[in-house]
Amino acid sequence: MASREFLKILSSARLGDVLAQQKLADAYLTGAFKTPIQPANALIWLEKSYFSITNQELKDKQAGSGPISEILAQIARIPLAQTFQSPAFGFGWTSFWQLAHSKAETQIHLAAKWQLANLLINPDHQEIQAQLMEFLKGKNISSSLEAIAGLDLKGLQKIAKQFLQELAETDSPFTSAAKELLIKLQPKNAALSSLWISWLDDKNEGALLQAAELGLTIARLTLGLRLAQLDGGDTKSNASLKKAAYWLELAAKDGDRDAWYSLGEIYRRPQFSGYSATESDRCFDRAADLGHAQAQLRKGANLWRKREKSDEKVRGLQASYWVWQAHQQGIAEAKELFGKILESCPDPQKNDWHELALQAEQAINHHAEHQLDEDWLLLCHRIVIANQFHFSKAELLLCEVGQLQHEHCVVVDIRWELPKILPRLIQIETIQQRRALLAAGKVFASSDLEIEGNLRQRRYRFDRVTDWLMTTFAKAPKPQMNAELA
User: Fold this and answer.
1) Residue 37, phi then psi, degrees to nearest 5
2) Nearest-CA neighbor of 416 among 428, 404, 399, 430?
3) Could you give the CA distance from residue 174 to residue 394 in angstroms, rounded to a whole number?
4) For the chain, which terminus, N or C, has the lower number of CB atoms within 10 Å?
5) By C-alpha distance, which of 330, 327, 347 is closest to 338?
6) Per residue of the chain (486 residues), what is the pLDDT tens digit?
7) Per residue, what are the HEC states of the chain?
8) Environment class of 146 (CB within 10 Å of its CB; exposed 0-12, middle 13-18, buried 19+)
9) C-alpha dihedral (57, 58, 61, 66), degrees to nearest 10
10) pTM for this entry
């Protein structure tokens, strides 16, 4: 789970603190504070920070000095291709082209060229490339950049190819990757295709080996699996496993998640001379990071088994994230484990707060008409959320609404006031649950939370608000409700 320091940074970033926004972006890029690496989120926060500074008329945009240069340095680290669906992609696209055409030969300048080349001409990103021009036309972005104004995809790719050749000739962190991509773009693809077809059609072992030697990732993976007999047969000798590991490592370096997973299995084989449980776990973790469903389940299950030894603030949160990822990909075994880690309450009509929540929603929808004070409005949102996730009364009053939502679940932790009450992890399963969290989050983010007061004040306000809701909106008095809330 994210640390308290991260949550403080997140809170400050939401309130417009520029430095906090930059720290938050860095966390999403590096995984600091146990944050999942999410380049798209990093770009969103950097966009906010960038425009916050420019709106304050801090116009020092020269790379190498000033607050703007710090943001540009962070932007240059973002893998642009992984942010295509992000609402901040247009900002990133513009920023990378501006950096790429800057006169200063800095690491930022070179990084921008690499990211643009990787996005525009890497065959792995053909799907994005096919959608890119329509996106840019719809947003009218390209026309605003003089260097690429009026260029179609082929024109952009021509410039990107020049960037790639420049990088391959320089001595920089991007030289090796640039050379590999240039090799990947060479016409040998036709020969590789022919060799691969020969293997598929005729089971030509020589063609498979040649394709692997020429760098075809799937051939390297297939050859590694055959040598290790991980494709159906019994495991062979240590010599075969060493050869298999060699080819699988090459495929893994190409980013193949199946290769990483298979390496994890090899390192667990007793007859393998390089046996290492630590290295095996590293390979499984890498496969999970790349989206291998079984690896994600394995990582989640491993974290769940070791939860008692974990130093995470809320035990089980990391495990639940990886099991959820596997469950999203249809792994049947993940469902049972997911149910053990997270509570489920998808039907608010069965929860204790249902009728009161309906009245609270009416009050929220007509808060101007009823002239609700801010603290009453906040409490109404608390009641709605409590109904959606079946909170206790203590959780309703004390939960930190702005910190409840994670990607896949709600974390209810009120130990700051009641240390003996353990945190709970609850699945986010319905659109209504997400809408309730979103609506409450917006209201709480723009409010002075000190207005809610301490626990005694919140209890007193709760009694007043619930009495008013039942009197104002209930069709008929329901005296048993007060007994249930006591």
Assistant:
1) -70, 120
2) 399
3) 54
4) C
5) 327
6) 567 888 888 888 888 888 888 888 888 888 888 888 898 888 898 888 888 887 765 444 443 445 677 788 888 888 888 888 888 888 888 888 888 887 767 888 888 888 889 899 888 888 888 888 887 776 666 555 676 777 888 888 888 889 888 888 888 888 888 877 876 676 666 778 878 888 999 898 988 998 898 888 999 999 999 998 865 455 557 778 999 999 999 999 999 999 999 999 999 999 999 999 999 999 999 999 999 999 999 999 999 998 888 888 888 999 999 999 999 998 988 988 988 899 999 999 988 899 999 999 999 999 889 899 999 999 999 999 999 999 999 999 999 998 999 888 999 999 999 999 999 999 999 999 999 999 999 999 998 889 999 999 999 999 999 999 999 987 644 444 333 333
7) CCCHHHHHHHHHHHCCCHHHHHHHHHHHHHCHHHCCCCHHHHHHHHHHHHHHHHHCCCCCCCCCCHHHHHHHHHHCCCCHHHHCCCCCHHHHHHHHHHHHCCCCCCHHHHHHHHHHHHHHHCHHHHHHHHHHHHHHHHHCCHHHCHHHCCCCHHHHHHHHHHHHHHHHHCCCCCHHHHHHHHHHCCCHHHHHHHHHHHHHHHCCHHHHHHHHHCCCHHHHHHHHHHHHCCCCCCCCCHHHHHHHHHHHHHHHHCCCHHHHHHHHHHCCCCCCCCCCHHHHHHHHHHHHHCCCHHHHHHHHHHHHHCHHHCCCCCCCHHHHHHHHHHHHCCCHHHHHHHHHHCECCCCHHHCCCHHHHHHHHHHHHCHHHHCCCHHHHHHHHHHHHHHHHCCCHHHHHHCCHHHCECCCEEEECCCCCCCCCCCEEEECCCHHHHHHHHHHHHHHHCCCHHHHCCHHHHHHHHHHHHHHHHHHHCCCCCCHHHHHHC
8) exposed
9) 180
10) 0.55
- The answer to whether the beta carbons of residues 313 and 4 sit under 8 Å apart is yes
| Token reading at 364 | 């929220």
Q: How many residues are recorded in the chain?
A: 486
